[in-house]
Q: What sequence folds into this?
């Protein structure tokens, strides 16, 4: 079983839509959780950390459910510039484990 | 020093040749990681250094691969006798520290794209 599982998509949504990505992780001892954004042929960049209480950064909301080992990312009012691949990342021990990424295309 | 720097950005090599990549992490970060990413996949862990000590290696890191971080600053990743399956983006990342109670993500370099022909 993979450490981190994500729906690869693709998600194609119109501008202004709300879209949610989900991710599950297999190791209950995982310590830290993140969402990264990766543009085509670029390196991943940290979008936001994910806290147990849930956290928000502008149009982006991240949630963590430790009991279900589940992480989510909600994007409200989608912009064309949100088109990218979103990677779920879990820190376990000294390693960061990446999901395969979920592809999002926001359509005008 | 504004980020993680990797060189070269692109490398095309013939099968069987050796290649070496370099990574300069953010100066105050003591942890350095190498990852490999192929198309449609997330980055896969290769190896990790804390200062100059190589603390963990993935089973993906065959004996053709070697990484060093001799002075705890920059790191090199060498691939000997390259194979076509080695074609990928090689990403370096650095971090101040990780663990319970921290939420330090990685900062990635731009990567070295290797093509083995």
A:
């Amino acid at each position: 079983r993979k450490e981190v599982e994500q729906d690869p998509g693709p998600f194609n949504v119109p501008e202004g839509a709300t879209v949610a990505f989900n991710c599950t992780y297999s190791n209950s001892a995982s310590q830290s959780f993140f969402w990264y954004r990766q543009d085509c042929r670029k390196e991943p960049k940290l979008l936001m950390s994910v806290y147990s209480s849930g956290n928000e950064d502008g149009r982006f909301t991240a949630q963590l459910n430790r009991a279900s080992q589940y992480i989510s990312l909600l994007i409200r009012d989608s912009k064309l510039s949100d088109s990218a691949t979103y990677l779920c990342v879990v820190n376990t021990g000294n390693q960061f484990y990446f999901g395969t990424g979920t592809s999002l295309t926001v359509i005008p | 020093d504004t980020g993680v720097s990797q060189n070269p950005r692109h490398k095309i090599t013939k099968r069987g040749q050796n290649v070496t990549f370099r990574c300069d992490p953010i100066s105050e970060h003591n942890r350095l990681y190498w990852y490999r990413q192929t198309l449609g996949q997330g980055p896969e862990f290769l190896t990790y250094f804390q200062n100059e000590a190589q603390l963990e290696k993935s089973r993906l890191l065959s004996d053709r691969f070697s990484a060093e971080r001799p002075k705890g600053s920059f790191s090199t990743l060498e691939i000997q006798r390259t194979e076509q399956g080695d074609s990928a983006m090689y990403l370096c990342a650095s971090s101040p520290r990780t663990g319970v109670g921290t939420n330090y993500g990685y900062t990635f370099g731009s990567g070295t794209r290797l093509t083995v022909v």
